[in-house]
């Protein structure tokens, strides 16, 4: 297996030679919040799959729903003229779930990148229907991550995800993220930094001319960029600027929806109602590929009230509204609400965050600890706290390996360690994650 993996398989976000030099771990089984590799090594999955397995790997009602649906109707398209019972039931449930966020219509996709693409396209179309055809540009945050399709890549804040594919979509502009540890303003106070970042957004809006901007897309808590929670004034401030200048606010909640931040959605965490919300990942907890774009009433009415044909939606995927995915999503949503997983995410997130702060006091290599909003945390590693020089790949790789040997899977992204365990972790699981990390750092 290991040899064929290296010879035959190109992995996402990796150099093809990487598998030869450093073969990936082959995961063959999972149970509860644990994963088991091909050599029988069992670990707590502190990554939660890829920020998505909120309910853990043994959620029987989800497995049963998938099996039953496979036997009843494994697939049928929901393109013009046909639909299925599951997608209707799910849309009704999602409208209820996202009602406090002001969102009531569901457009299905097969994942997060598709959802971002659809949301950006809908934003342009919304303005076109309203006769504002010049509103085509997109603003987003540096450090933001919005998937790998062309529009999503164009709004990605990390240049590493853009440069090899340029020229990408013109008209996409990126403003500073509220990242206290490193920012162009040298400002470490979160409230003051939020104000500076908001001022930079307003400057960019004026510079570009608001009549040319379709939407601002942002993650309520930046995830893949290294878990960057903003000050509480930031997202409401972005909402206010979008409303002031007639720009749609797209919340990319591929990671944050369904409880990860300790609230049911990331937008609700900050008391904001977006115009469009993209979700995927935990909507099916990893049990089936699926995604959704939720649409606010006021936006939906523009499409639905259009009599000229401009409101016809030109996006759609063979697997939009897949009946098995929808069955999985219905079961996941029921379990998510029944278990009130957001409450555990909040409590265990606090335990994890304070434990990580204690690790920082013991290990010089930890330059910054971020978290405090549910089960999304990151450690930023530096070779020297004063200069904040990022730690080298080999050293962080050593921490990764030693933590693995100590029984916990973590995610390394650049010089960050990212932690996003299932939302059903226990106090003992979080203690295991912390002690394995302690062993990982002690190995240096
Ligand atoms: N947006 C965000 C915020 C994400 O974190 C991700 C995936 N990590 C995506 C979009 C893309 O989702 P997918 O991988 O399902 O295409």
TrEMBL record:
MF terms (GO), sorted A to Z: transaminase activity
Cross-referenced PROSITE patterns: AA_TRANSFER_CLASS_3
Keyword list, A-Z: Aminotransferase, Pyridoxal phosphate, Transferase
Pfam families, A to Z: Aminotran_3
Cofactor(s) needed for function: pyridoxal 5'-phosphate
InterPro entries attached to this UniProt entry: Aminotrans_3 (IPR005814), Aminotrans_3_PPA_site (IPR049704), PyrdxlP-dep_Trfase (IPR015424), PyrdxlP-dep_Trfase_major (IPR015421), PyrdxlP-dep_Trfase_small (IPR015422)
NCBIfam families: PRK07481.1
Family: Belongs to the class-III pyridoxal-phosphate-dependent aminotransferase family.
The protein's name: Aminotransferase class III-fold pyridoxal phosphate-dependent enzyme
Organism annotation: Albidovulum sediminis
């Amino acid at each position: 297996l290991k040899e064929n993996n290296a010879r035959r398989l190109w992995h996402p976000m990796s150099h093809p030679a990487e598998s030869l030099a450093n073969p990936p771990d082959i995961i063959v089984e999972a149970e509860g919040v644990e994963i088991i590799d091909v050599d029988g090594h069992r670990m707590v999955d502190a990554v939660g799959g890829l920020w998505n397995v909120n309910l853990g790997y043994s959620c029987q009602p989800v497995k049963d729903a998938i099996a039953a649906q496979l036997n009843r109707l494994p697939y049928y398209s929901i393109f013009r003229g046909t639909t299925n019972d599951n997608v209707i039931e799910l849309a009704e449930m999602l409208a209820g779930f996202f009602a406090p966020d002001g969102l009531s219509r569901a457009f299905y996709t097969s994942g997060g990148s598709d959802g971002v693409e659809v949301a950006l396209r809908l934003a342009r179309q919304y303005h076109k229907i309203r006769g504002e055809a010049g509103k085509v540009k997109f603003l987003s945050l540096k450090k933001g991550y919005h998937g790998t399709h062309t529009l999503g890549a164009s709004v990605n804040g990390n240049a590493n995800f853009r440069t090899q594919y340029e020229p990408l979509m013109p008209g996409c502009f990126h403003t500073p993220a509220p990242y206290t540890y490193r920012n162009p303003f040298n400002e470490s106070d979160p409230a003051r930094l939020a104000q500076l970042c908001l001022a930079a957004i307003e400057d960019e809006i004026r510079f570009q001319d608001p009549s040319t901007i379709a939407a601002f897309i942002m993650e309520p808590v930046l995830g893949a960029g290294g878990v960057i929670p903003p000050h509480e004034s930031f997202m409401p401030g972005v909402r206010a600027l979008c409303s002031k200048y007639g720009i749609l606010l797209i919340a990319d909640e591929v990671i944050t929806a369904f409880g990860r931040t300790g609230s049911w959605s990331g937008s609700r965490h900050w008391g904001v109602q977006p115009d469009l919300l993209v979700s995927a990942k935990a909507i099916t907890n990893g049990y089936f590929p699926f995604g959704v774009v939720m649409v606010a009433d006021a936006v939906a009415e523009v499409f639905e009230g259009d009599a000229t044909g401009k409101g016809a939606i030109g996006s759609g995927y063979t697997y939009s509204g897949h009946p098995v995915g929808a069955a999985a999503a219905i079961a996941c949503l029921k379990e998510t609400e029944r278990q009130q997983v957001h409450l555990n995410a909040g409590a265990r997130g606090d335990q994890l965050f304070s434990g990580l702060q204690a690790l920082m006091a013991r290990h010089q290599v930890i330059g910054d600890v971020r978290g405090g909003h549910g089960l999304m945390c990151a450690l930023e590693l530096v070779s020297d706290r004063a200069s904040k020089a990022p730690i080298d790949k080999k050293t962080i790789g050593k921490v990764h390996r030693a933590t693995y040997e100590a029984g916990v899977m973590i995610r390394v992204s650049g010089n960050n360690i990212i932690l996003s365990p299932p939302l059903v972790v226990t106090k003992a699981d979080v203690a295991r994650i912390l002690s394995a990390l302690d062993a990982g750092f002690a190995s240096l």
